[in-house]
Amino acid sequence: MQKILLIDDEEVFRETTRMVLQRKGYEIHEAADGVAGVEIARRVLPDLVLCDVNMERLDGYATLEALREQPETATIPFILMTGMSGDDTMRRGMNLGADDFLEKPFTPPQLFAAIEARLRKHQTLQRTAERKLAELRSNLSLALPHEMITPLNGIFGLADIIATDAATLRPEEISELARGITSSAERLHHLVQNFILFGQLELLATDADAQAGLQKASTTELRDLISRRLAERAGKCGRKEDAHDTVEDASVRMKPEMFTKLVDELVDNAFKFSLPGSPVTVSGHRTGQVYHLSVSDQGDGIAPEQIARIGAYSQFDRHSREQQGSGLGLAIVKRLTELHQGEFRVQSEPGRGTTVSIRLPVAA
């Protein structure tokens, strides 16, 4: 039996509405004002809240705001009821996160239709989120151990050489082995960070409020940031001469650390899948309210079917194939771009190189 919390300071209205809803099969909880309503909502966690706007103790808007601030009640469907009409009244409620608006007086069919529509939508969102989390858990459990094997083998193997042959190794040999261990450890650390980040981004994809918060941040002075990151990544893999950029300055709507991650993954991917001596080119320019960023290489390229599989669940599919091509980095870039209302595109031809293009909204 689904639970509905009815908050209204008119006793006759509450009694009538309660009887109508109980006959429909709902379990009803009542509150005569917003203060009591917030307390009851936190205690019983209803499936939906029906709340009057005009109440002396904590009106409907403040009640809605209080419930949206608490994690346990933030996603409960909330329908505002009022005898006042007008776009301003409705807009204020919607801006605070109301799911629907019922203008008094309303008929039982109108009430049932509003409730059932909100409950269906909420259930659909819950099922979608649960399915994605289940798939993410399954895919992580399959992919993470597999991806860890290579760097761990490197760490164990090199450490074992030092442990067993320390007495006969020259200092420069020990130093070289230690650098190998460090390199494998860094690779493993990067892998774990990417898996954690991707999990966080998948959760953000189910939270509209969190996405809106992301889009309020901005990164400025893109030219300096992109050029600096390109030079650093090129130097790390010994390919400074291969790095080229033509980047215009601008600002985009994305947190600096997220934009930096996006650039790093694109550049690392280009260097990883192209040969030393071949160019990796980064370009960026603004057109109207959009910033265009692209990273091109002349490497192995990506087949069309691999491009279509860039993303979380196909990315981690190891039931029938070994992971090839772009790796988790492009999946992260794609999700970051989507979460910031941008566009992600890959153009590639096997054996002739790849260009990954990103379009992001410009910050005001």
Which value, in Å, is the CA radius of gyration? 27 Å
Please work out how many helical segments DSSP would assign.
Answer: 12
Main β-sheet description: 5 strands, parallel
Shape: elongated
Q: Strands across the major sheet, in which order?
A: 2-1-3-4-5
Fold and architecture overview:
The protein has 364 residues and is of the alpha/beta class. 53% of the residues lie in helices and 17% in strands. The chain has helices at residues 11-23, 34-44, 60-68, 87-95, 108-165, 171-204, 208-214, 222-236, 256-272, 304-308, 312-315, 328-339, and strands spanning 3-7, 27-31, 48-52, 78-82, 100-103, 243-247, 280-287, 290-297, 343-349, 353-361. The strands form two sheets. It has a five-stranded parallel sheet, with helices on both faces. Strands 6-7-8-10-9 form a five-stranded mixed sheet, with helices on one face. A hairpin with a 3-residue loop joins strand 9 (343-349) and strand 10 (353-361). Helix 2 runs parallel beside helix 3 (60-68) and helix 8 (222-236) packs parallel to helix 9. It is elongated. It starts with a strand and ends with a strand. Mean pLDDT is 87; it is low at 312-326.
Secondary-structure blueprint:
Blueprint: E1 3-7, H1 11-23, E2 27-31, H2 34-44, E3 48-52, H3 60-68, E4 78-82, H4 87-95, E5 100-103, H5 108-165, H6 171-204, H7 208-214, H8 222-236, E6 243-247, H9 256-272, E7 280-287, E8 290-297, H10 304-308, H11 312-315, H12 328-339, E9 343-349, E10 353-361
Parallel strand pairs: 1-2, 1-3, 3-4, 4-5, 6-7
Antiparallel strand pairs: 7-8, 8-10, 9-10
Helix pairs in contact: 2-3, 5-6, 6-12, 8-9, 9-12
